[in-house]
Design goal:
about 260 residues; Alpha-D-Glucose-1,6-Bisphosphate, Chain A, domain 4; 7 helices
Length: about 260
């Protein structure tokens, strides 16, 4: 190979590897933006979610195909096949496909098609400030009754009221502080009736769920009931139950 041809091969190698890495960074950026764009008020959560479901895997597969082509071209040019840029692009492509890989390997869990979870399904806490006109809401805050209660008890038998020896007012204040610490947006407080309403956002796609926490007096302390309702979606994939249990566990561990 002449010096000129060798230089051309090196330039070709540099260009394809740079192109491969640049494209992979762009694809990863788009994948991340679809997940967190709603948090930046770029679009509604459902739009980011739908776009991610439709395009995320395609971005990952296209990146991997380009990486393979880069390896082939590097070998054809008789240069180092596995360059740092190409390997980095490979890692980024796998990162894009990580959600799909995890879902494929994970044992499937069948959640009931419900989105309204309450520790008290007989007399669930009723929202006063938040109503069905809240932004982006497709689901009503009217409790559907025994039908969803039965499904909840079967799927999430551990979702129960929190009983504490703390006095009602102290438990109420502690609940408020904990909700704020968990990042919930407190939208309404009623210190006299000892309940408050809040909006919690999912870390991915920024879906809004509405929460009400009610503290009632008991002979030996107080009882805390929590209700969490998704604004959109027939089912919540267990998110509301997880939120309630997270709150209860943190309350127990916090002095």
């Amino acid at each position: 190979m002449t010096k000129t041809n060798k230089n051309e091969a090196i330039m070709s190698k540099l260009n394809i590897n740079t192109l491969c890495l640049t494209f992979s960074v762009l694809c990863l950026s788009l994948a991340v933006l679809m997940v967190f764009g709603a948090s930046l008020n770029l679009w509604e959560p459902i739009q980011g979610f739908s776009a991610s479901r439709q395009y995320n895997d395609s971005l990952g597969y296209i990146t991997l195909v380009l990486v393979i082509l880069t390896f082939i071209i590097n070998g054809y040019n008789q240069q180092k096949v596995f360059t740092v840029k190409a390997i980095t692009a490979l890692v980024l492509g796998i990162a894009i496909l990580t959600p799909t890989i995890i879902n494929t390997l994970r044992v499937p869990v069948r959640y009931p098609p419900i989105h309204d979870i309450s520790t008290d399904t007989t007399t669930p806490p009723s929202f006063v400030f938040l109503d069905d006109t809240r932004a982006g809401a497709k689901n009503s805050l009217h409790y559907a009754g025994q039908e969803i209660a039965d499904q909840q008890h079967k799927a999430f038998p551990n979702v129960k009221p929190l009983l504490t020896s703390q006095a009602q007012d102290k438990a109420y204040q502690k609940s408020l502080q904990l909700a704020d610490k968990m990042g919930w947006e407190i939208v309404y407080q009623d210190p006299e009736q000892q309940f408050f309403e809040a909006t919690a956002y999912t870390p991915f796609f920024h879906f809004a769920d509405d929460v009400i926490v009610r503290v009632s007096e008991q002979s030996n302390g107080s009882k805390i009931d929590i209700r969490s309702v998704s604004r959109i979606g027939r089912g919540d994939r267990g998110v509301n139950a997880q939120r309630i249990n997270h709150f209860i566990n943190d309350f127990k561990q916090t002095r």
